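Re: that chain you flagged

S.,

Sorry for the slow reply, it's been a week of failed gels. I finally had a moment to sit down with the sequence you sent. For the record, here it is as I used it:
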Amino acid sequence: HRGKALRAFKETLKNYLAGALKPVGQALYIWGGGWNENDDGAGEDAKRLGLNPNWRRFFMSQDKDYDYNDYRYRRGLGLDCSGFVGWAMYNTLYCERTKNIGYVAGANAQAEFLSKLGLGTYTDKAAVKDYRLGDIMSGDGHVYIVLNSYADGSVLLVHSSPPGVQISGTVSADGALDSAAARRADHLMSRFYPTWYARYGSKVKGIEYLKNYSQFRQHRD
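Prediction finished late last night. Pasting the structure tokens below so you have them in one place:
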């Protein structure tokens, strides 16, 4: 079972990343989105193939003043950070044998949780040395997926963070806001997600994204 899931993951890294980008700019952040009613694992939305059409409908019903605090636990309307990562993993690993398995865990524990499933390796935040396409980074209260890294030490990432699923860039390794990743994120969001960008713009993420996150890296060979 684990061997089959691992082979599927290795063979579909590109599909995994393409899938992770599908909710960008059309799914808002919902506290508890992707979790089950008991808040102890993956719910219906995190074990869904493809996009929930309600995510976009809800996004289109809101405006620049959207506040996720007004919609906590309104499951089915969007995804929180670990719900989003779990959804992306499910859509990559799905087969008949894995259709009832969920990949959602608390943000701080999600990287280690995925490694314990035999899908890759776990690195504690103190030992993280670099960032590769597809790495999942777990921090205190948040989790994100790496899209790219740059010579200035900045990281381009996709995540669900208020107001929703978006591409962001971190500051550079020395804390500069005008980093290569920040510029790239702003370009991508403005060009490909103009409705979102007009409402919310793009946000540069702080140095903690580079220092306070442990890492899950899927097996590649």
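What I noticed first: The helical segments are 2-11, 13-21, 53-61, 81-93, 110-116, 180-192, 194-200, 208-211.

Talk soon,
D.
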